[in-house]
Amino acid sequence: xxxxxxxxxxxxxxxxxxxxxxxxxxxxxxxxxxxxxxxxxxxxxxxxxxxxxxxxxxxxxxxxxxxxxxxxxxxxxxxxxxxxxxxxxxxxxxxxxxxxxxxxxxxxxxxxxxxxxxxxxxxxxxxxxxxxxxxxxxxxxxxxxxxxxxxxxxxxxxxxxxxxxxxxx
Length: 169
Prior knowledge:
By secondary structure, this protein is α+β, with helices and mostly antiparallel strands. It has helices at residues 2-19, 55-60, 84-91, 153-157, and strands at 34-40, 51-54, 64-70, 73-83, 97-102, 107-111, 120-125, 128-129, 139-141, 163-168. Helix content is 22%, strand content 34%.
């Protein structure tokens, strides 16, 4: 019986060494105003069963620029934000789509596979934080100018602004 217990202890230790690093990442609770709440099929949370992010937490994920033309502006604009792929990884998303909800409760469904297009959660327009009046604080932007495929109504329709919530399904 003691040999069996020792074998179980060794097996448990080995599993802990292998699987321990794969546990859910700790997300700090937001210190400032919450701009984005992610819920649904996620493994990493910080407030109940949701992942909530203030501006500082979103910016800390790493920001990228997209310089593109879009239907909403006459000229090429520079949008700066967090790649959706990074957000999905951070929250441990596992599903097939996002339901994105704006401040006015407008909803749009986006396949998770769109993360591979380079889509971002834009928070800055030409270097300035986007206000609600300017389609902020978060505007889903695809790199439209980078591909003929992205210059289509399908992707324009997925480009929700004033985003406040994302549910992973």
